[in-house]
């Protein structure tokens, strides 16, 4: 029997700037070396893959991801996710590597017309008509990012008060109390 797990965290985009949100997203979800992939797939084999997205508007956003997991690994997977989020909060990751990857990603976007078009349309229509200045982005993207700022944002965003956790599957076999105790560790 399998369960579908959907986890999201609300974020106040007025408080946590786009650069830090992007670094958090990259560190947690982007690529085979992302911390979530490493914890749920590479180290444990709990899942084969997951999907994720960072939803952003001018005032609010959310980090979202979901995965399918076997019944016997459900609680262990949620515990692994909480451990990864607490790892970010404590600064136990390679920030410099993530910054370099983020800068490379921006440069690659200039080579992909579909990605560039989508990004410009999103900024123009969803994010209050803000134009993209790629020279400014490439020169200033990571200037304001330091480990303490990322850790502070992670502590605020990845807290239980911002968490939405949905589990689809046979509800009789879900240990809600145990999962609640695990998610309490986010605060």
Tell me what you see in this structure.
This protein is α+β, with helices and mostly antiparallel strands and 187 residues long. The chain is 48% helix and 19% strand. It has helices at residues 18-29, 35-42, 74-89, 95-109, 113-125, 134-140, 147-157, 176-183, and strands at residues 2-12, 50-56, 60-70, 163-168. Strands 2-3-1-4 form a four-stranded antiparallel sheet, covered by helices on one side. A hairpin with a 3-residue loop joins strand 2 and strand 3. The radius of gyration is 17 Å and the shape is globular. The relative contact order is 0.21. The model has no long low-confidence stretch (mean pLDDT 87).
Average pLDDT metric: 87
Portion of residues in helices?
Answer: 40-55%
What is the succession of H and E elements? EHHEEHHHHHEH
Order of strands, widest sheet: 2-3-1-4
Shape: globular
Beta strand % = 15-25%
Low-confidence stretches: none
Helical segment tally? 8
Rg calculated over all Cα atoms: 17 Å
| Main sheet attributes: strand count, strand direction, barrel closure | 4 strands, antiparallel
Give the termini separation. Answer: 31 Å
Task: Show the helix and strand layout.
Elements: E1 2-12, H1 18-29, H2 35-42, E2 50-56, E3 60-70, H3 74-89, H4 95-109, H5 113-125, H6 134-140, H7 147-157, E4 163-168, H8 176-183
Antiparallel strand pairs: 1-3, 1-4, 2-3
Helix pairs in contact: 1-4, 1-7, 2-3, 3-7, 3-8
Quick structural overview:
The protein has 187 residues and is α+β, with helices and mostly antiparallel strands.
What key phrases describe this protein's structure?
single chain; 187 residues; alpha+beta; 4-stranded antiparallel sheet; 8 helices; 4 strands; 19% strand
């Amino acid at each position: 029997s399998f369960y579908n797990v959907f986890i999201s965290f609300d974020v106040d985009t007025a408080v946590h700037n786009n650069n830090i949100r992007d670094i958090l997203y990259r560190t947690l979800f982007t690529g085979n070396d992302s911390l979530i992939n490493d914890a749920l797939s590479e180290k444990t084999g709990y899942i084969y893959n997951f999907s994720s997205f960072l939803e952003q508007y001018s005032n609010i956003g959310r980090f979202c991801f979901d995965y399918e997991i076997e019944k016997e690994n459900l609680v262990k997977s949620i515990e692994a996710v909480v451990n990864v989020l607490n790892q970010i909060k404590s600064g136990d990751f390679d920030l410099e590597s993530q910054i370099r990857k983020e800068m490379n990603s921006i440069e690659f976007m200039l080579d992909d017309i579909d990605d560039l078009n989508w990004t410009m349309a999103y900024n123009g229509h969803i994010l209050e008509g803000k134009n993209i200045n790629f020279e400014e982005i490439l020169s200033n993207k990571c200037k304001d990012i330091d480990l303490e700022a990322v850790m502070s944002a992670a502590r605020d965003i990845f807290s239980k008060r911002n968490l939405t956790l949905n589990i689809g599957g046979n509800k009789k076999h879900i240990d809600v109390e145990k999962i609640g105790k695990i998610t309490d560790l986010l605060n």
